[in-house]
Amino acid sequence: MFKTRLLSGIVLVVILALVIGLGGNVLFGFCLLISLIGMNELFKIAKTDRKAPGIMAYGGIILYYFVLLLGAKEYVMATIIITLVAILATYVFTFPTYDATQIVLTFFGVIYVGVMLSYIYQSRMSGDGVIGVAIVVLIFLASWGSDTCAYCVGMLFGKHKMAPILSPKKSIEGAVGGVVGAAILGCLFAFVLNQANFGSHSVGRYGIICGVGALISMVGDLAASGIKRNHQVKDYGYLIPGHGGILDRFDSVIFTAPIIYYLSQLLSSI
User: Which ranges does the record mark as transmembrane (predicted)?
Assistant: First the structure.
């Protein structure tokens, strides 16, 4: 199991490195694809994956992505509102076919998965080549990097449970180690970029971004676990051997991506 998890993890990192490095339409297509797959995983739980509300949600997020591709950000909120109206229309005109909880979870999936994962693409395209790539790397350092640090520190020193019912294996000591570890990784990343003459990058700023992102990533991880427990499923899917589905692997990234996108913009202007 460990070998399978390790190999699939390496393959995933290689794929991510390629699509992030290429950016543009390649990254656009990748983010749209994983958003649709992730939404499908969530909709299966709500039993709306192939029904009218789910179809409206898929169409809405495709429209949303193409609005981003065209650079028409002033219409982003309009696409979200149109999607909500379309989902509610299926609820109203087919009543009582769908439960209100299904409808709420369907629209939740549009925001939670589709919109929030789009910030990987938006981060990559937010600056010139190096800056855009750097921001995306910070997203994954703050999520996957902090998760690895939290696991190692928790295994060695973990005594106090952080969320004993929701995630019994996570400890407060591990959480602290994850935040500190992510901050150190951010600082090291900026240092490496500076030494390699890839522009001027603030070591302190990158450390802050990764530290804050790590805190948020824990919320994302626990939120995804809570949804699974509420619906009594172990994994969202089986797409990534040893890891589960897209939501199992990108649960922390979902929360971290928009936070780091806005935080990097805020700190760059200070």
Answer: 6-34, 55-72, 78-96, 103-121, 133-153, 174-193, 205-224
Six-digit token string for 181:
């570890």
Tokens 């969320």 correspond to what residue? Answer: 163
Q: What CA–CA distance (Å, rounded) separates 231 from 247?
A: 14
Q: Which two tokens stand for residue 80?
A: 């979200």
Neighbours of 18 (CB within 10 A): 12
Is residue 137 exposed (0-12), middle (13-18) or buried (19+ Cβ within 10 Å)? buried
CB of 224 within 8 A of CB of 243?
no
Note the helical H segments in 23-145. Answer: 24-46, 52-69, 76-93, 100-109, 116-124, 129-140
Cis status of the peptide bond prior to 96, with omega within 30 of 0: yes
